[in-house]
Design a protein that fits this description.
The protein has helices at residues 12-17, 19-33, 40-61, 63-68, 86-91, 93-96, 104-110, 144-156, 170-173, 191-202, 219-229, 238-249, 269-279, 393-404, 428-449; strands at residues 5-7, 126-130, 138-142, 180-184, 210-214, 233-236, 259-262, 283-287, 296-298, 304-306, 311-316, 331-336, 344-348, 352-355, 368-372, 379-382, 388-391, 410-415, 418-422, 455-458, 475-477. The protein is an alpha/beta fold and 484 residues long. The two termini are 26 Å apart.
Amino acid sequence: MTTKESGNRSSPFDYLSNWSDGVSCWQAIQRLQSRPIISAASARRIGQNRAIELIAHARKRSALYAEHYASVAPGSALEDYPAISRQTLMGNFDRWSCDPRVSRESVDRFIATNDTIGDRYLGDYLVWTSSGTSGEPGIYVQDRQALSVYQSLLAVRYQQDSRKPTFQDPWHMAFDTSRMAMIAALEGHFAGVVFWQWSSKLNPWLSNRTRTFSILQPLPELVAQLNEWQPGFLSSYPSMLAVLANEQRCGRLKLSPRSLWCGGEHLDCHQRQQMESAFGCPLIEDYGASEAMNMAFGCSHGRLHVNTDWFILEPVDENLKAVPAGQKSATTLVTNLANRLQPLIRYDIGDSVTLHTDACDCGNPLPTLSVDGRSDDTLWLPADKDEKIPVLPLALNTVIEEHAGEFGFQINQCGPQELSIRTQGDSVESRCRAFRKIRGPLTRYLSSLGTLPITLHHDKRPPERDACSGKLNQVSKSPELLSL
């Protein structure tokens, strides 16, 4: 299995073709900067008005939503409209879009090659995919307005904490000489890398200062590449940054970044402290999803502030009924007010969240929440010389989904050199077929990292999903191995 490490090589034509995107983003940034601090009440009111417009637009332009809302009177409150699931959206992909040119067939052709990552689909849109933690992989097409909103929120809202002026986001760092690095799953059209590559193409002065690194490569290779690149801004998943923080403490990694950025997984207070201590700089946390990027942004007090003027989050119980602030939800319904091409209205995102009832000490008035997101374990597998090699859960996810084409699996480390794997399927026979597809790519990947031979067992039972969210804890360790 090959590994990937790449810079952004853009031609003058790339810059010209992305000029209109850059202008749109700059205009959106200027609009946000004209009102840098927005009150909670104003943000909520703006969001509600945008929701009314989005629902009317979806009913008129999307065949799926016209049918889905047929029994709801126009002008009804948002909570009166039925929720919608990923399975429904993916099963009605062509009828969902508000642009008849968008089809599942043409999108599948577009994402069939990684050469188009960060390029525009149909000349107007970006496309990215999400993993199948709910058992159903997702494909999302983003219009120009959505991209401008995501970029402007990134550029403006993360700068609002005046008590921590050392916070730096990628947009502001674009205007100095710092190098930037993103460590991610590069082997597919995933949201983070697509958005990163597209954002870099908007700024010709970034082409020689941004680089992406694959999480699939062996750790010593990654450390050597980062030591050579010396980024001032480092972005990755919490699990990857935790591993790199250990390498920094041990002296093998020798970086002096000005800012760290993380998202995509659960981050706890201990992890944050360890990372900031190891690298000597602040860590910026982002809460977003493939369906709705930049839903909330982290402040210097470790709180996540919700961008309620662009995203409406409804914490609900198992019956999709609202739960009060301060109470942990079973799942969350998200309305993305930015994307009018593929409307996401009361979409069941599957995350359990808790809205806070108190104000944040950072002074930002936007409401805050805590999220129970992905909390898979990093596996430490044995290698030669009594060493242990970290294997990230998202790396395993990428290998199995991209190279075996299987989703909804579950891996448990049941011994120092043993992994037990459950696979998705309606019968034992179908689950056995899925395991056979997984076994080869997974064995080759672990071998490429330098682990000792790892025995893969097939647990013929189906994966066990969370009773509330329906999501999988995809990678875990048996209790007796938690100290590894």
